[in-house]
Design brief:
There is one protein chain. The chain is α/β, with parallel strands linked by helices. The strands form two sheets. It has a four-stranded parallel β-sheet. Helix 1 packs parallel to helix 3 and helix 4 crosses helix 9. The two termini are 33 Å apart.
């Protein structure tokens, strides 16, 4: 299965048009990742400055509709169905229901599942989510050159003061130059999820500050389903 992750109609149209023209096929499904998502973001820093303006979410809903419409054009052309999944900041059933009303076939949720008993991240990593306040969530610049969202910690403070020495390259990024990037993102992410939350990079979603306790996957799913049905 192939499924592009996009943040704009322009990106969706370029990808689907190229696949259509060069390979005579289309996507199996498509994911729209909004600016409230965790980790790497498909937006510029300038675009992210508008994130909390009163009309931002309503305007982005129009972008979601346009992406779905664009995807449907290729679904019709290929006589198939291309489900569109919306992601980024979805925390409850009310948001889920709204995305479905916009025309999405489903949702992608990550942040709330980190603080479940079943999540295999270290307890310290989960607790960092529980303890995080809204003001602790910040936009950082990843070594890949993209804005990313993470929880403020000593690691980010250290990186802000200067480059970290990289002793091993995992060759995870084709254009990454260990001699130039400020730190190894693979090592930083692995260290954090294994529990070293002071010396690792803690990626998270924009609404992590809404989480205040641990739960279970079963309970979380039941709540999402019940709230969506209301």
């Amino acid at each position: 299965k192939i499924a592009p992750i996009v943040s704009s109609e322009k990106a969706a149209r370029i990808i689907l048009k190229r696949w259509d023209k060069r390979f005579h096929r289309t996507a199996d499904f498509l994911v729209i990742e909004g600016a409230h998502a965790g980790g790497h973001l498909g937006f510029s820093r300038e675009q992210l400055t508008h994130l909390y303006e009163p009309d931002y979410d309503r305007q982005y809903e129009e972008e979601i509709r346009n992406i779905i419409a664009c995807t449907n054009e290729y679904a019709v052309k290929y006589g198939t169905s291309i489900p569109v999944i919306v992601a980024g900041g979805i925390m409850n059933g009310q948001q889920t229901r709204h995305m479905l009303e916009l025309g999405a076939a489903g949702i992608q949720v990550a942040t709330p599942f980190v603080t479940t008993e079943e999540c295999d991240a270290a307890d310290a990593f989960k607790q960092a989510y529980v303890n995080a306040r809204p003001e602790d969530i910040e936009i950082v610049t990843s070594p890949v050159g993209m804005p990313a969202r993470a929880i403020h910690n000593p690691f980010l403070e250290k990186i802000a003061l200067g480059k970290e020495t990289i002793t091993k390259c995992y060759r995870c990024l084709e254009k990454c130059n260990p001699a130039k990037v400020p730190y190894c993102i693979t090592r930083a992410l692995i260290d954090a999820v294994k529990g070293d939350v002071k010396n690792g990079l803690i990626f998270c979603g924009a609404n992590t500050g809404r989480i205040h306790e641990m739960t279970t996957v079963h309970q979380l799913i039941q709540e999402l389903i019940a709230e969506t049905a209301v």
